[in-house]
């Protein structure tokens, strides 16, 4: 039961923050791409990198904090389903160049953000 409560609390906080960031950036488009989803996903990747860096280099995160933050918060803050839906919208608009750019930029930026999170912990 404790595990479910930890994940649930983290999920609540991550979901609420994702909603807030999306509302803040609602209607913001960069090169006709949805900026809100892109920002939360890349920030979530950076936070995951920091968490995994802390686990790997310092072993400072307890199992409870890992469940609360990595599984709950980051899992709820980032949004793969919205990302995929937005890609479907680009397909329906026949914006294949935008689709290719958005997918490539998201994956490359996500990988760089996770790596940057690891690096920040290692250098700190």
Largest sheet: 2 strands, antiparallel
Helix vs. strand class: mainly alpha
> How big is the Rg?
16 Å
Number of helices: 5
* Major sheet strand order: 1-2
Write structural notes for this entry.
By secondary structure, the protein is mainly alpha-helical. The chain has one domain. The protein has 5 helices and 2 strands. A two-stranded antiparallel ribbon has the order 1-2. A hairpin with a 2-residue loop joins strand 1 and strand 2. Helix 1 packs across helix 2. It is globular, with a radius of gyration of 16 Å. The N and C termini lie far apart (35 Å). The model has no long low-confidence stretch (mean pLDDT 91). InterPro entries: FluC. Fluoride-specific ion channel. Important for reducing fluoride concentration in the cell, thus reducing its toxicity.
State the main characteristics.
ion transport, sodium, cell membrane, FluC, transmembrane, 5 helices, 124 residues, globular
Short description:
It catalyses: fluoride(in) = fluoride(out). The protein is mainly alpha-helical and 124 residues long.
Q: Which helices and strands, and how do they pair?
A:
Blueprint: H1 2-24, E1 29-30, E2 33-34, H2 35-58, H3 63-77, H4 80-92, H5 96-123
Antiparallel strand pairs: 1-2
Helix pairs in contact: 1-2, 1-3, 2-3, 2-5
